[in-house]
Design brief:
With 100 residues, this protein is mainly alpha-helical. Helix content is 57%, strand content 6%. It has 6 helices and 2 strands. Strands 1-2 form a two-stranded antiparallel ribbon. Strand 1 and strand 2 form a beta hairpin. Helix 2 crosses helix 3. The longest helix has 18 residues.
Length: 100
């Protein structure tokens, strides 16, 4: 099977996924999180760093479950277009639905 090259949108989505997972993991160790999700720590490291921009769905589901994230929330966060981000007035950007 030949994999198609990743688009810039795929890469950006992978970076948003990695950032979301790092934030959700908080102070919890990468090793503990990976083992609880039945992944290798290296796999989790690659996903969090964006080096694996399109991880398999079961992998995302396992990590989300361990971190207490809803898959709907993960999907919404990683697929939000950049134009849905509006300044909050404090120098930080917020999704459009938070800025209302």
């Amino acid at each position: 099977m030949v994999r198609l090259p990743l688009t810039p949108a795929d890469v950006e989505r992978g970076q948003r996924l990695g950032a979301l997972l790092r934030r959700a993991r908080g102070e919890r160790s990468m090793l503990e999180t990976a083992l609880d999700a039945r992944l290798s720590p290296e796999t989790l490291r690659k996903i969090e760093s964006g080096r694996v921009a399109t991880p398999a769905f079961p992998t995302i589901a396992a990590i989300a479950d361990v971190l207490g994230l809803s898959l709907d929330a993960v999907w919404a966060e990683i697929n939000r277009p950049e134009h849905d981000v509006e300044p909050t007035g404090d120098g930080h950007d917020a999704p459009e639905w938070l800025a209302s």
